[in-house]
Every structure is written in structure tokens, then in C-alpha cells.
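Zn-dependent oxidoreductase, NADPH:quinone reductase: C-alpha cells wanted.
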Amino acid sequence: MKALQFSQTGDLSALRYLDLPTPVPAAGEVLVEVRASGLNPSDVKNVLGRFPYTTLPRIPGRDFAGVVVQGPQNLLGKAVWGTGKELGFYNDGAHAAYVKLPADGVALKPASLSFSQAASLGVPYTTAWDALERSGVGRGTRVLVIGAGAVGRAALALARVRGAHVLGAARREEQRRALQAKGFEALPLTTPEALPSQVEQVFEGGAQVIFDTTGFWLAAAVPALATFGRVAIIAAPADGQVQLPALDLYRRGGSVVGINSLLYGGAECAQMLERFGRHFDDGTLPAPEGLIESPLAEGLARYADVDEGRSEKVILIP
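Answer:
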């Protein structure tokens, strides 16, 4: 089969487009013919050596959608999608013609989504779902989502499905207008000092949940919290350090929730996909748009695009 593989880390030039043996599934596993696979920033960081537990040589790629061609009878021929912490790190991932994984690591693909659309959602949507679950977002919760990247947009859409009162915030004006075009009220991110008053104008008493998807607004988010509010974070500055206004945080009974998608295996992610996937078919979650499809053979160039900060979601097609 054709696949992308790296045998050393530190430079994207280590990624090769190769002919490799097609994996053979064991009992309790499935072999999925990959129809589309998402390219995430974490896939790029993996090749660059940011994950010390990755074993080599390795096929990268966490997110996929495809068709089961070997495995349990109840899954044969079914269109599925999946993601998880194993893929691309200590098991071969989905940037290949086929991927092998445990049978409980796949979920049935929503019928309303194309293979490319489904493959674009794994990491962003399971990350956002986990943040909302663990922050206690439900009907009526006042939620501020900072950042308009893939995870931020997923969080806004999923929070709205949950019946929350949703507010976005973005630094770039075109991002703010894009959120407004999708029906979200969105604040312009100006200065950290301005954020609490901006939030108060929309949410009297502050936001009950703030999800900072950027890694740079934790300190500013605390004064914008309601009593007993929660701040969820998925990123941090390059040095991993931030000044936390601890006095303000504990006086308002606030808490910080760390979100890490690499804590969840394929089976746990498949359960998440099942839970929110139905909302694409019932029309309450919008299908993703603006995807960039690229042949798997051009994978190295697409990895370089993502490394350089390309904002469009790239989908690799075997």
C-alpha cells in the first residue's frame, strides 16, 4: 500500500511517500480502507519530534474516514470514522491507503457527511466535546470561546447544540465576521484588560465557562468569570508558563480545566463520535466547509503548509 512514513524526527524532510505492506488485522481488529484522512498540527509536530513517546518507524495521521474491508461481520462494508491517541504515535496512523485498529475504535460515519468532511472532524471535535463535557456546559450555560480555529469553531457549534448561550471572541476581524455569518455573536479580542468588561456587556455577571483555545488568554479570562466559573485550556505559551491571578480565581470559586485529546484512546473517541455524530444527520450541526483535498502523494508539501500556519483544513486522499 502507499503511505507516508517517517523513520526519524526533527525535520519534515524525514517524511517519505513509500510502498509498505498492507497491515493484517488480528482477532478483534478491523482493516479500514482509508478514503480520506485529516492533517492536524499535532501530526506535523509528531514528525518534528515533539512527542517523545512516538515509536519509529511510524505512519502518522490521527483522523480518518473509510470503509471496513476486514474485521467483524457486523462492520464489514460499513463506512466508519475514527481518531485516538494511539494512531500515529505508537501504532501506525491513517496517512496511508489502509489503517488497522481495534474494532471498538471506529464509529459509523454520519450519512450526511462525505468521507473528507468526516475525516476533518476527529481531533477538533473530540477536543471541543471533552472541553464542554468536563466544564459542565449544558442548557443555559453562558459560554465564551476564545479563538476561531478548528477547535474554537467546533466548541461554538457543539455548545449551541447543547443549548448554551454562546459567545465567540477572535483577534482578526475576518475571523469575527466569519463567526457572525454562522450566527454567533463574537467579540473583537483587543487587550487582556478589556476582556472582562466586554464579556460583562453580553453576559451579566460574567461567563460561567470560558474555553481558551489559544493559550494566551488564561490570565485575562479569570476576571471575566462568573462565580464558580470554569476556564478550559488546550494550549500554553511556548515556555509552558503563564501568570495566573490565583487570588481572583479562588475568591470567585473558579477552576481551571486542562484539556488534552491525547489522553483518549480510539474506543473512547469512538464513543464521543457516536454521541455528537448524530447531530450532523439531524441537521443541528453544520457540515464542515472550505476543506482542501490533496493527494496523499503530495503529503510532504501539505505538511509544510500546515507547519507554516495555513489555516484551511487539509484532507489527504489516498
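The chain has a mean pLDDT of 96. Residues 121 and 225 are 29 Å apart (CA to CA).

Cheers.
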